Structure formats: structure tokens, C-alpha cells
Amino acid sequence: MDEIDLGLDFLGKRLRLPMVINAITGGTEQAARINQILSSIAVRYEIAMAVGSQTIAIHDPGLRYTFSIVREYNPDGLVFANVAAGSAVSEAVEAVEMINADALQIHFNIPQELAMSEGERSFRGILNRVQKIVDNCPVPVIAKEVGFGFSRESICRLYEAGISIYDISGQGGTNFITIEDQRSGKFMGEMDQWGIPTAVSLMEAISLDLPIQIIASGGIRTAADAAKAYALGADMVGIAGPFLRTLLNHGPEELEREIEEMIYRLKAVFLMTGSGNLEQIKKQPLIILNETAQWIESRGIDKLMWSRR
Question: Rounded to an integer, what distance in angstroms lies between the CA atom of residue 26 and that of residue 35?
Fold first, then answer.
């Protein structure tokens, strides 16, 4: 087990664990404390970290510290900035500069917006905005879903716009339609199951055989979940909700214990499958069953590409 290497080179920096503490929060005093603790944990375990949407701090510079604290406590680590996909170029650049980010997540959250009484209703021209951000952003751009998954068609259109890194964030984790629907009642619970499951979205992305990097998030809760994502072809996994709940309910020490145990169990899966590193686990046979198999087959994706390798 000691010889297993979970490390990954991502955007020119070495990670000991192929994981990102995904976009959670910012903009309040409590958010600043959360970001400080999570950033310190990211340093200790040499994992990446993303901040929540920085739009609030762009509009109110007095709140910048709630995001910049991440870089203050993590000066050399891999850190992602975050703005909406429809943001102006100036906002995207400001978000990157605010935390000296290594990459910029631009999030796509149309279902969430439509569930909000005050949400956006027009998304015309968003691909043109994405293209402008990609062309003018000083760091790589990551297309990030927020819990509804990317289809092959969406990835192809974003790839044409110049994006080569995707956080697919499929259905199965935090459900923002349900959250917003509790406030507005717009969908009356009818859309609670909307979205492409994470495993399916990941397989849709992999089946394209494009030169892209993929972060799998959305319902990744355990070492087994993470291992399956790596075996399917993900370069990294993203976890947000489970880490936040542990931190808020039990404190930073318990979160560190949880991560330590996850690393042990993840290495155990690698050892039990004879995989010494990420590249090797991606070559192990993986069986796709039941509804997931039916879904990808109905999309013309051969499930045997994983089981017969």
C-alpha cells in the first residue's frame, strides 16, 4: 500500500490527492472562517480548492477578504476562482486577480436560476461570453455545472468555444432546484429529479475521446465513489457538501480525520484492484449495470468500452 501513488500533476502543480474541495461559499464573515479552515486543510493534504461565486465581492469590494483569505492561507496551492458563465470579461479577470487563482471556474446553473423568483430568465449570447472569457482570461477556464451534469452536446459546444477542462457536477449531490424551490415554489417539486447523473455525465464526456480533463463531482461522498469516478476516466473528483457538513457539525479535526480515512480506503481500493496509480486504475475493467447501462446505451455509448479493456 505504501507504494501506491495517488498524485496528479494538474495545471503545473503537484497534488498528493486528485481531489478539489469544490466551490462552497464566500461573502460573509462565517464564509471567511469556512474558507480559511478549508484552505488550511487543502494545504495539509495537498489538494485543490475552489471558492464560491465571487460576484458578491466584485460588486462589494469590502467582501473580497472572504475569498482572498484562501490564497493567504494557501499561498502555493492549486486554487480556482469562480464566476457565472454569463459574466463580463472584466468580472472574470477581477475574480482571478482577487485570489491569484490558477484557474477560473465559470458555472452554468440555468435550472437553479429558473427555480429562483429573482433568477435570470434570458441566456442568449452566453456562448459568446464564454468565448470572450476564454480568449482574455489570464489562466485556464473550467466549465462547471452545479449539480445537473453536462451532456456530450454541451461539452462539444463548449470545447468549440475553447474550454478543455470540465467539472461535470452531475445530479446526485446538492440539489439546487430543491433548495430554491423551497424558497419560491416555482416548480412545486416537479423538477426535483432534473439532471444527468454524475456517472452518466462522466461517461458522456469520456465517450467523446477529446483532449480534455475532467473533474467528477456531484454526489461523490465516499472513497468508493471517487475510485469509480477515476476508473471511469475522471482526472480529479470534487467534494463540497459532505466536507462542509462535517466541518460545521463536528469541526476541523473531524474533517481531517474523515479525509485521512478516505485516503486509506481509496488506497485500499487501488491495492485490491492492482492499481499503483491513477493511470492504472483507468485501465481496470469496470462493469456498468442497470439504469446507468440503459441510459448510456440509449445514447449510443458502448458500455463494453469499460468492461473489456
Answer: 7
